[in-house]
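Re: the multi-chain job from yesterday

Posting the exact lines I submitted so nobody has to dig through the queue logs.
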Amino acid sequence: MSTITSFPPDFIWGAATASYQVEGAWDEDGKGESIWDCFSHMPGKIANGDTGDVASDHYHRWREDVALMEEMGLHAYRFSIAWPRLLPEGPALSGAKGRGRVNPAGLDFYNRLVDALLEIQIEPFITLYHWDLPQALQDQGGWPARATAEAFVEYADLASRTLGDRVRHWMTLNEPYVSAFVGYLEGRHAPGHSDLDEALAAAHHLLLAHGWAVPAIRRNSPDAQVGIALNLSGQTPASPSAADRAAAWRGDGILNRWFLDPLSARGYPPDIVQHYGRPMDFVQAGDLEAIAAPNDFLGMNYYSRRIVRNTEIPRAKNVPRTVFPNPEKTEMGWEVYPQGLYELLGRLHFDYRFPSLYVTENGAAYADQIGPDGRVDDPARVAYLKAHFTEAARAIAAGVPLRGYFVWSLMDNFEWAHGYSKRFGLVYVDYRTQRRVWKTSANWYRRVIAANAVVD
Ligand code: FCB
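And the result, structure tokens for all chains:
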């Protein structure tokens, strides 16, 4: 059997970053504080006491980084706007309290970045919210408060009014699951809360913010494609027992269907509503219709799958595990499971019928080091990407409208609660000097893009 490894002629190859993870300059040029500035400054929250204060210093070195993208041959660059860099206090409209100050230096930064990208034919794909909420909005309740969704629409309107004449691809949110459940329930991310009702309300207001922002962006940028980026993972039962299968389906509902279903006009999945058993009284008339605003594309961030064992029944009552106990893992401890990408792409197309799809993030962390010869050799990352690109090609051949693929990440950066301890970049960053060093994977990716095919 021959492997299908080439891609359609107009396939978009890109790389992704996010504002808080790369920019640094956390308090420069009029930027307001974000929940991640505040959270990372709290002792004990981030590995090694790291913060995003400097990160990969992209705010100052963006020209050099754009040159890297050009050399790599990228067709597109996915990055996010730091909301508090545009609107230090959050909302755009001046309310009774006289808020709504726009920071011109923030607008200038993203204007210059977009212009520089377009000049060398790199298509900007903008994410409006990749987790750095203005702290001023968190102080008034954050995502569990409905007013935050209203403020988001003002921000989305400002950003798309400013950049919408040039930017053709917009994502409202990155991974609302993580914002809501890791931020407000697990507490591992900003703002670090542990409250299920807050998390459920946050998830709803994030979805609402998305649904309200879609028409605002379309108004300002009529030719634009608008979508959202979700983190999705298949849930594999650890054994064929009914108990494990039920637990896996529940896991699927919590992570995947809770977002996919309302976005696709199916409402919240009833089995999971019942599982949470909470009042959900934050859902108001018209909300579900707003959330179901049609998207031009769905972005999927894919890294791994979850293997689910039912832990509620005694082990003796379950059947033995049938999946491999020790799969190959990345430095994050995430199983390398490329087939999961193919399976999910198929599901998004054949079940949910999104008009087009992008892999908005895929990549792997490994313990990269600069070798004695000054090179960074990362064969494991090349193997990871090769296997995943091949699955993407297979999905396209099976009829999935996958239009593009963004490797996470362009360069090493601040990996949230892991700080700088996890390296996902195609390009290595020496944080002492901020020197960028191409990894083997970056050179290999350049050849993939040039050939528009998975090469050796
Ligand atoms: C995703 C995030 C991204 C990055 C990768 C590794 O969940 O969207 O910012 O941290 O994981």
